[in-house]
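Example complex used in Figure S2.
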Amino acid sequence: MSPVEEHNIDLLRNRISVSAAQQDGIQNMVKQLKKQIPATLVLVADRNGQIIFMNGDMAQTTIPELAALLAADLAASEEIARLTDTYQEHHLVLREGEKQHTFISEAGPNLALFVQTGSDVPLGWSRMLIQEASSKFAELVADQSNKEIAEGFTFNVDEFNSTVDGAIDDLWN
Amino acid sequence: MLINWKLKELNLKIVYYGPAFSGKTTNLIHIHSRVDPQKRSDLISLKTQEDRTLYFDFLQLEMGKVNGLTPKIHLYTVPGQASYESSRRLVLQGADGVVFVADLSDDRQEANQKSWENMQAHLVSFGILPARFPTILQLNKYDLPNALPSEQVAKSLPVNGIPRYTAAAVNGDGVFDTLRAAIQGVMQSIQRQLA
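Predicted assembly (368 residues):
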């Protein structure tokens, strides 16, 4: 294997690619889950805290922070489970409250799911639907063959090089 | 990295790593203060009661379109204190690039060394070859009276070929140059993957 090929494998290890069809599937499942529970907020992010889809009442500006904290919370509780030798697959964290409950669930190796419900919704019902949905989300993004990169996207190196510097400069006031 | 082909988004994670008190959070505070609020999230900091980073700081930047994709850059810091080893590993996981913030103060060289070795070990444990991972070295606090020459500190770390920037992050000096180099480094690695 050449150094370049080795390098690409290193970088690809972290990549999650969500195709248009997978995104549509996630959006439909999120909406369905929100209605079925019923939940006030459902959010799907990747395990690094990058948002994929959110449905519910929340200011758009605070979603990136919520997604980052969701991934961090799940990672921390998984690490606690590993350190105490209690880790199991389909890990789910419940925060029970007087007015609302929040659930944080792993959805396979790539995704994390956040669900918020009113406290009047039975916990067992929510838990069952969330665990079912988590498995479906995991299946949905399991195919990471990234075909769209080759078939639906043309990468223009010249355009890339000329625009990336300008885009960075535009960030700074 | 998360590429969403429907939303045309490219989500990237850059982690500011380094020993305690080296100025990682200070970098993010300055970036937050200088970037147009329309192009960034709020800065979130999970801190101890003593105002030290407990878990991480987080800030998202949204760049203009590049080759039809909107890059969203997620900046994280790790907690520097020795006892937060597990947290550092969790935050570093999934990073697309790192900024190592070294402290130029003469009494912090051992801490720099340990933190650098610790970061390399974590990257290796993730199956990453550190020598080929997008990494930027920031040599911070050159403005302090006890600061060592940046060349001397850089030589003490095995950082051959890694771009490095001298900074006084508390004044904002060198912060953008470091950020720019980190984003460029990560974007160049993306270019190699997508081209």
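The radius of gyration of chain A is 19 Å. Chain A touches chain B through 57 residues (CB under 8 Å).
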